[in-house]
Amino acid sequence: MNDQAESSRTRREPDIVTHSLYPSPSFHAIKIVFWWSIALWAMCAVSGRWQPHLVSDSASYLDYPFASLESMARYSRLPAYPALLRACLAIAPSESVGLQLVVLVQILLQAIAVSFFMIEMRRWGLSRSAAIAAAAAVAVGCSFWDHVSTIATDCAAMSWGVITAACILRGWRIGFSTPLAAGVAASSLLSISLRPAYLFLLPWVITMVLFRAGDGVLPPWTRRWRDVAVIGSLPLVVLLGWCQFRYTVANDFSLLPFGHQNMAAVTTQLLDNDELEQMSGPGGALASEIARRRVAVSTGRSGRASQPGTGAIDGLDLRVTSDPSLRADSYMTLENRWDAMTYLVAIPAAIAVAGDDPIDQHRLLAELDRQIVLAYPLRYARWWMLAMRRGIWGSVANIVMHPIFLMVIVLAAGVAMLVCIWPQVISSRAEMDSEPARCSARARRALVLLAISYAATGLAFVALTSPTIGRFSDAAFVFLPSLAALAMVSKCGRLRLSLGQSSR
């Protein structure tokens, strides 16, 4: 009798809290990582993404000045990714082999991240096919597809962001134990160390710990604040320690002397030349120099040449075009001329005013950005909202244009047409009302919260300083294709169930 009762309780226990799915968790995880590594490597080899590709940022990582602490403190990059490059090049017989090894490391890191995410989705109660589909959508997302072979931080930082999110999912499910909290802190810190744009992970992680997905039963606030303290302490201590190191060595208490040139290329476009020249204070001289230089660049007298007669009188037309309609005051024109404003106007102007010291240049650019935002807050707020809108539709468009996702979308459209023609092939909701279905619903709710909050926080952070172009915003939308994948797998599952019942 007791054995029967115990057996009954075991059968009723939902998958979301049982570990019986994985009798040997470590071995099972290693197998999953192995197969994802093979799959991603094969995809890269077939699609031409296996060979390393140098981009404009690559030199700044390869030439990192490890020779002295002062050089490191004054450099515009954090040492994490350069250290990875240095290690790969040190153990390789040649530079080409070393760079190839970097690509392999980025593939392996993505495989680990995707495996962790898939296992966690499975533990939440998703079926095997649904978990694989959700993980595959993350695995071949736009950031991996575009940057896995580039010698830059985009792919590796995105993978650590996925690991951080998978840790959050696990914490929602079983609670944030001290080891798990340390894992969340370490993975978010590694992502930030590779790419400071992932600083958004700190407020996002704190928010997700305080307001977590579940079934309406949350831990007490004291427990949640304890989790926040444990998770937030490691990144803050390390990052503040790095800032203190830079202050001690280079007299600059900040993460990097980098970033405000990107923001200045945005904020100075919000003002015409008269407004720039009227600015006073520490940033006044720089504002006047930027006003002068953007006219010179626009008319072809400095930097990249323009066609005769196409320069706007305020210097805001930095593109080669004879169509006046393309010089409209819109977000897209700000974005299109942002690159030229950064490298042909803002940075040369800062050098001319502040001298050759990159820290002095960055301080002056930061002061100018601060003055403009305080003097014209509504213009800056409008820019931010337009950048958010552009980031949303731009990232969605990139997902749709992704060759793999496009094929899946076409297939889904075919299934939708089949359902419209033959609606009885879809089983009723009553047939899906089972414990596995309820577990899947919990998993979907968790993934929806994760995907939307991750995208919104990441995009909002990027829009503060830069246009939300694909390279910056695609990584924030890494989980969005997973939602579509789950919806499609669910629809196909109901289709198979109905067809199976009709055949009987």
Automatic annotation (TrEMBL):
Signal peptide span:
none
Q: Where are the transmembrane segments?
A: 32-50, 99-119, 126-145, 200-221, 228-247, 404-425, 446-466
Q: Which domain of life is it from?
A: Bacteria
Sorted keywords for this record are: Membrane, Transmembrane, Transmembrane helix
Q: What is this protein called?
A: Glycosyltransferase RgtA/B/C/D-like domain-containing protein
The species this protein was found in: Allorhodopirellula heiligendammensis
